[in-house]
Amino acid sequence: MPTSMSNVPLRNTNTKKSIAPLNRNILFTGLTSFLTDTSVKMVYSVMPMFLLSIGASRTALSLIEGIAESTSSLLKSFSGYWSDKMGKNKPLMLLGYALSALIMPLYVFVVNPLQVLFLRFIERVGKGIRTSPRDSLIAGSSPAAETGKSFGFQKAMDNSGAIVGPLLAFLILWLFPGNYKLIFLLAAIPSLAGIAVIIFGIRETKNKRALKTVSVSWKNFPSKFYFFLGIIFVFTLGNSTDALLIVKARETGITVAFVPLVYMVTNVVSVLFSIPTGILADKIGKEKVLIAGYLVYAGVYFGFGKTGSISGIVLLFALYGLYSALTDGVQKALVADMIPKESKGTGLGIYNALLGFTLLPASLVAGILYDKVNSSLPFYLGAFMAVSAAILMAIYLLKMKRLSNSE
């Protein structure tokens, strides 16, 4: 039967209406991320100290964060697949953000590390449900030549919330020393506001009638996608939980109330550079920017292993923000560029699932090394794996250039 025009996938015309230079969906998705990250980072910036205060070891801390983040990443593969099959992103985004918002105030009732593990697990389930559909929405709302810019803006908004959150946590601890429970209660407010933004601000980009006949399969993805996933696997083996960075900052002599401010430095730098690096990646190639990002990470982690000074730690947290700006959004943008439009949710989900699969052993090994062997060793391991990933990325880039020249 001839294909009718009604069955041809159409780009939602709503996504062409822009507020300022960026698409409406990208702006409101960024605002949602800003509000939610404000909430999450209020809690996360004090969680390592809170866990240590209720008797957790550094190994237990790494295990809790590794399980939480791995759960999040693994679920992103399923949520991405289902967003593609449903032809909708918004329902899963709403469910995921709502689940995280409801968990925040429950930390008030925690008295032991096992309860933190349970709540972190549930809260990260929410992140796992929402992230791939959100990334798919961004990819579907972005012009083909501006995915780096769009994901850079998303990362900048994420990290803007990650500036405000730790700043609020610092103010609360400064005014009310040791009052972690007040932080947990107040953290629910911005995340609830983020839910309202999803409901009233975001519009679907997918065409359900067109997409429901599409067969989503791993065979849809090119070989270069899986080569890139191999590079991500190598890098993530050395990319353990950031909680150990916070512990390191505390152990250099930074007082508890000021630890969130040090963590905030990372996010300030990341906000300043996320959009420029995204634009740069669109111009010179995302692969080149990622190589630079992996090398910056290697230098930062080597520095964390060597330094014992407060000024050195603050500088390294700043450089860690530069690494984040160079890689987080750019990696997603590169994945989005590689895969077909109808499978973007699934492809981004597979990418996120790999991060989750690798993050748990990486964090557990780092925590054991920190506790049982030497506190510098996990950082040296991270530096080595990052250099290895940079070399593999350079090989990937050369291979892609050869293929391009032979066509």
Number of strands: 2
Distance between the termini: 35 Å
Share in helix: over 70%
In the CATH hierarchy, what is the class? Mainly Alpha
Q: Which strand order spans the largest sheet, edge to edge or round the barrel?
A: 1-2
Low-confidence segments, ≥5 residues, pLDDT <50?
Answer: 1-20, 208-214
Structural class: mainly alpha
Helices and strands in order, then pairings?
Layout: E1 18-19, E2 22-23, H1 24-44, H2 47-53, H3 58-86, H4 90-103, H5 113-141, H6 147-175, H7 180-186, H8 188-201, H9 208-211, H10 223-236, H11 243-251, H12 259-284, H13 286-306, H14 310-338, H15 344-373, H16 377-406
Antiparallel strand pairs: 1-2
Helix pairs in contact: 1-6, 1-8, 3-5, 3-15, 4-5, 4-8, 5-15, 6-12, 6-14, 10-15, 10-16, 12-13, 12-14, 13-14, 13-16, 15-16
Describe the overall structure:
The protein has 407 residues and is mostly helical. It has one domain: MFS general substrate transporter like domains (Growth Hormone, Chain: A). 77% of the residues lie in helices and 1% in strands. The protein is built from 16 helices and two strands. Strands 1-2 form a two-stranded antiparallel ribbon. The N terminus is likely disordered.
Short note summarizing the structure:
This protein has helices at residues 24-44, 47-53, 58-86, 90-103, 113-141, 147-175, 180-186, 188-201, 208-211, 223-236, 243-251, 259-284, 286-306, 310-338, 344-373, 377-406; strands at residues 18-19, 22-23. The protein has a single domain (21-214, 221-406), classed as Growth Hormone, Chain: A (Up-down Bundle).
Question: Which characteristics define this entry?
Answer:
407 residues, Growth Hormone, Chain: A, 16 helices, mainly alpha, two-stranded antiparallel ribbon, 2 strands
